[in-house]
Design brief:
Helix content: 40-55%
Number of strands: 3
Strand order of the largest sheet: 1-2-3
Distance between the termini: 80 Å
Structural class: alpha+beta
Length: 142
């Protein structure tokens, strides 16, 4: 026996709403009529898509269907799903990640490298720091 109740279309919709999935619209700009369709853009660039048959109600999913939806569409475990639905805690994947640092322009990396600055030091610099360091190195040549 499962420690979770059988999932319903309404639970599925609650999960999507709580986690911040976007309702997909058709060509006319209106929500798709035959299914309620949601998308979620993940930090790694993938886009998850799920459909909920109309009407969104307390109709329960068959176990095999629900297992497929969890695994392939929602990409969540049963525990993550129910924690999101009952406690309003979204799965970890949807929490904001630290944005990647802005990379340095190639001309700065190349210029610093040609002046003997170690790659580890260059990698730790901001664009402003790299620009200033390269200016200093150029001024020392005169």
């Amino acid at each position: 026996m499962s420690k979770h109740p059988k999932a319903t279309r309404e639970d599925h919709d609650d999960f999507c709403t709580t986690e911040g999935w976007t309702l997909v619209r058709g060509a006319t700009g209106k929500p798709v009529a035959h299914h309620r369709t949601y998308e979620l853009a993940l930090p790694d660039g993938r886009i998850l898509r799920t459909r909920i048959s109309r009407s969104v109600d307390r109709t329960q999913y068959r176990d095999s269907m629900w297992s497929h939806i969890l695994r392939t569409q929602l990409q969540a475990t049963a525990d993550e799903f129910w924690e999101c639905v009952t406690d309003k805690i979204p799965p970890r994947r949807s929490r904001p990640t630290t944005p990647p640092r802005k990379s340095l322009p190639l001309y700065l990396v190349d210029g610093l490298s040609r002046h003997g600055v170690p790659p580890q030091e260059i990698g730790a610099m901001t664009e402003e720091e790299a620009t200033e360091r390269l200016r200093q190195l150029w001024s020392e040549q005169d």
